[in-house]
Design brief:
6 helices, elongated, mainly alpha
Protein backbone atom coordinates (compact mmCIF):
# COMPACT_ATOMS: atom_id res chain seq x y z
CA UNK A 1 0.00 0.00 0.00
CA UNK A 2 2.99 2.33 0.35
CA UNK A 3 3.03 2.60 -3.42
CA UNK A 4 -0.44 4.15 -3.36
CA UNK A 5 0.13 6.35 -0.29
CA UNK A 6 0.31 9.63 -2.27
CA UNK A 7 -2.89 8.73 -4.14
CA UNK A 8 -4.69 7.83 -0.92
CA UNK A 9 -3.44 11.05 0.66
CA UNK A 10 -4.79 13.00 -2.33
CA UNK A 11 -8.17 11.29 -1.92
CA UNK A 12 -8.28 12.17 1.79
CA UNK A 13 -7.44 15.79 0.94
CA UNK A 14 -10.10 15.89 -1.81
CA UNK A 15 -12.66 14.40 0.59
CA UNK A 16 -11.96 17.14 3.14
CA UNK A 17 -12.23 19.88 0.51
CA UNK A 18 -15.43 18.37 -0.89
CA UNK A 19 -16.93 18.04 2.60
CA UNK A 20 -16.12 21.68 3.37
CA UNK A 21 -17.65 22.74 0.05
CA UNK A 22 -20.77 20.72 0.84
CA UNK A 23 -20.97 22.20 4.33
CA UNK A 24 -20.62 25.76 3.05
CA UNK A 25 -23.27 25.17 0.37
CA UNK A 26 -25.75 23.62 2.82
CA UNK A 27 -25.15 26.32 5.44
CA UNK A 28 -25.59 29.04 2.84
CA UNK A 29 -28.81 27.42 1.67
CA UNK A 30 -30.08 27.24 5.24
CA UNK A 31 -29.48 30.94 5.86
CA UNK A 32 -30.75 32.05 2.45
CA UNK A 33 -33.98 30.10 2.87
CA UNK A 34 -34.38 31.45 6.41
CA UNK A 35 -33.91 35.02 5.24
CA UNK A 36 -36.26 34.48 2.31
CA UNK A 37 -38.98 33.02 4.58
CA UNK A 38 -38.59 35.87 7.07
CA UNK A 39 -38.70 38.58 4.42
CA UNK A 40 -41.61 37.05 2.51
CA UNK A 41 -43.78 36.26 5.52
CA UNK A 42 -43.17 39.30 7.71
CA UNK A 43 -42.30 42.01 5.21
CA UNK A 44 -44.32 40.72 2.24
CA UNK A 45 -41.30 41.23 0.02
CA UNK A 46 -38.80 39.03 -1.75
CA UNK A 47 -35.04 39.23 -1.97
CA UNK A 48 -34.61 38.19 -5.58
CA UNK A 49 -30.84 37.81 -5.59
CA UNK A 50 -31.08 35.13 -2.89
CA UNK A 51 -32.68 32.84 -5.47
CA UNK A 52 -29.51 33.05 -7.57
CA UNK A 53 -27.41 32.08 -4.55
CA UNK A 54 -29.80 29.27 -3.60
CA UNK A 55 -29.70 27.75 -7.08
CA UNK A 56 -25.91 27.86 -7.15
CA UNK A 57 -25.59 26.37 -3.66
CA UNK A 58 -28.09 23.65 -4.53
CA UNK A 59 -26.09 22.55 -7.57
CA UNK A 60 -22.84 22.55 -5.56
CA UNK A 61 -24.44 20.64 -2.67
CA UNK A 62 -25.92 17.95 -4.93
CA UNK A 63 -22.77 17.20 -6.90
CA UNK A 64 -20.31 17.44 -4.01
CA UNK A 65 -22.65 15.15 -2.04
CA UNK A 66 -22.59 12.64 -4.89
CA UNK A 67 -18.78 12.56 -4.81
CA UNK A 68 -18.75 12.03 -1.05
CA UNK A 69 -21.36 9.31 -1.43
CA UNK A 70 -18.93 7.41 -3.64
CA UNK A 71 -16.11 7.97 -1.16
CA UNK A 72 -18.06 6.43 1.69
CA UNK A 73 -19.59 3.70 -0.50
CA UNK A 74 -23.13 4.87 0.15
CA UNK A 75 -24.01 5.25 -3.51
CA UNK A 76 -25.86 1.98 -3.99
CA UNK A 77 -27.60 -0.21 -1.46
CA UNK A 78 -26.89 -3.62 -2.98
CA UNK A 79 -26.62 -5.58 0.25
CA UNK A 80 -29.96 -7.33 -0.23
CA UNK A 81 -28.92 -8.64 -3.64
CA UNK A 82 -25.45 -9.66 -2.50
CA UNK A 83 -26.53 -11.37 0.74
CA UNK A 84 -28.01 -14.27 -1.21
CA UNK A 85 -24.73 -14.97 -3.00
CA UNK A 86 -21.45 -16.30 -1.73
CA UNK A 87 -18.36 -14.27 -0.91
CA UNK A 88 -16.85 -14.56 -4.39
CA UNK A 89 -20.07 -13.53 -6.14
CA UNK A 90 -20.42 -10.59 -3.77
CA UNK A 91 -16.90 -9.38 -4.60
CA UNK A 92 -17.46 -9.78 -8.34
CA UNK A 93 -20.76 -7.93 -8.07
CA UNK A 94 -19.04 -5.14 -6.10
CA UNK A 95 -16.38 -4.75 -8.78
CA UNK A 96 -19.03 -4.76 -11.50
CA UNK A 97 -21.01 -2.03 -9.72
CA UNK A 98 -17.85 0.05 -9.32
CA UNK A 99 -17.01 -0.39 -13.00
CA UNK A 100 -20.50 0.72 -14.02
CA UNK A 101 -20.22 3.71 -11.69
CA UNK A 102 -16.86 4.72 -13.21
CA UNK A 103 -18.34 4.52 -16.71
CA UNK A 104 -21.38 6.52 -15.61
CA UNK A 105 -19.28 9.19 -13.92
CA UNK A 106 -17.03 9.42 -16.98
CA UNK A 107 -20.15 10.14 -19.03
CA UNK A 108 -21.31 12.72 -16.50
CA UNK A 109 -17.87 14.36 -16.65
CA UNK A 110 -17.86 14.40 -20.46
CA UNK A 111 -21.32 15.89 -20.80
CA UNK A 112 -20.76 18.09 -17.75
CA UNK A 113 -17.86 19.76 -19.54
CA UNK A 114 -20.05 20.41 -22.58
CA UNK A 115 -22.87 21.66 -20.36
CA UNK A 116 -20.59 24.01 -18.41
CA UNK A 117 -19.04 25.35 -21.62
CA UNK A 118 -22.45 26.15 -23.07
CA UNK A 119 -23.57 27.73 -19.79
CA UNK A 120 -20.86 30.38 -19.86
CA UNK A 121 -23.13 32.30 -22.24
CA UNK A 122 -25.96 32.20 -19.68
CA UNK A 123 -26.24 34.31 -16.56
CA UNK A 124 -28.21 34.18 -13.33
CA UNK A 125 -31.29 36.41 -13.58
CA UNK A 126 -30.48 38.99 -10.91
CA UNK A 127 -26.78 38.88 -10.07
CA UNK A 128 -25.78 38.20 -13.70
CA UNK A 129 -23.18 35.61 -12.67
CA UNK A 130 -22.03 33.25 -15.45
CA UNK A 131 -23.73 29.90 -14.89
CA UNK A 132 -20.73 28.12 -16.39
CA UNK A 133 -18.77 28.69 -13.18
CA UNK A 134 -21.55 27.11 -11.14
CA UNK A 135 -21.91 24.16 -13.51
CA UNK A 136 -18.17 23.41 -13.48
CA UNK A 137 -18.88 21.47 -10.29
CA UNK A 138 -20.51 18.78 -12.47
CA UNK A 139 -17.40 17.53 -14.32
CA UNK A 140 -15.15 18.25 -11.33
CA UNK A 141 -17.31 16.21 -8.95
CA UNK A 142 -17.59 13.41 -11.52
CA UNK A 143 -13.79 13.25 -11.79
CA UNK A 144 -13.46 13.27 -8.00
CA UNK A 145 -16.09 10.52 -7.83
CA UNK A 146 -14.01 8.37 -10.17
CA UNK A 147 -10.95 8.94 -7.96
CA UNK A 148 -12.96 7.89 -4.90
CA UNK A 149 -14.29 4.76 -6.62
CA UNK A 150 -10.74 3.77 -7.58
CA UNK A 151 -9.62 4.49 -4.01
CA UNK A 152 -12.25 2.07 -2.77
CA UNK A 153 -10.94 -0.54 -5.19
CA UNK A 154 -7.44 -0.14 -3.76
CA UNK A 155 -8.55 -0.18 -0.16
CA UNK A 156 -11.74 -2.10 0.43
CA UNK A 157 -13.17 -0.49 3.51
CA UNK A 158 -16.29 -0.55 5.57
CA UNK A 159 -18.42 2.52 4.71
CA UNK A 160 -18.84 3.41 8.39
CA UNK A 161 -15.09 3.63 9.06
CA UNK A 162 -12.94 6.36 7.62
Amino acid sequence: MRLFAPYLSLCRWLAKITAVLLGVALTSMFFCVGIQVFVRSLLSMSVLWLDDILMSCFVVAIFSGIALGFRFRSHLATTIIVEGFGELAARVFGHLVDLLCVVSMAGVAWYGIEFAESAFGQFTPVLRLPLGWVYLIIPVSAAISILFILENQLVRKDPQHD
